[in-house]
Amino acid sequence: MRDHGVKLYNVIFPIWLLWLFPGTWLVVLPACFLIDLLVVALTLRYLRVKEAGEKVKAVIIKVWLCGFAADLIGTVGMLSTLFMDGRRFGGWVGDWLRWNVAAAVERNPFDSIFGLLWVAGCVALAAFFIYLFNYRFCLSKAGLEEDEKKKLALSLAVFTAPYLFFLPTEWLFY
Questions:
Q1: Where are the transmembrane segments (predicted)?
Q2: Residue-level pLDDT, tens digit, the chain, 174 residues
Q3: CA torsion 44→45→47→52, rounded to 10°?
Q4: Is there a contact between 49 and 55 (Cβ–Cβ < 8 Å)?
Q5: Residues 6+ apart with CB under 8 A from 81
Q6: Whole-prediction pTM value?
Q7: How far apart are CA 166 and CA 121, in angstroms?
């Protein structure tokens, strides 16, 4: 039996969860800020950057906001699976996409290697944009040397990528 209906509980974590449960913003926003702050501070300390505290203060808000923008790009990739069905792609191709990619992404990425690869691609896409936004915009006037900017942007991309995309939403909604 085919199910072409989109149900409210077929949502993608975390952006849609934040929309459905606005109170979660009170936890997520400060948590993301603290994680970004910790990554920036520890990376600058590891790199032995002089006046690291001043540099952290100068960049942290931009880093935090650009992290959300990059996560939103990854979320668009996740949500694009909602449009994978037989009506859009026709016949068996649409059915295959719906059951091997979209259903796994929406419920549990570990149910299908194709769903897992899709989610991994969305996490990698977000991580790429975290790196790009931080390197090009957030750290451009931070008074860091070129290699320090690259290392800090890479550190942010690796440690703040939206790994929660892998969280099976069926644990929350089914």
A1: 25-47, 59-83, 113-133, 153-173
A2: 344 444 333 333 445 455 556 666 778 888 899 999 999 999 999 999 999 999 999 999 999 999 999 999 998 998 888 777 656 666 676 778 888 888 888 889 999 999 999 999 999 999 999 999 999 999 998 999 999 999 999 999 999 999 989 988 887 765
A3: 50
A4: yes
A5: 101, 102, 105, 106, 118
A6: 0.82
A7: 11
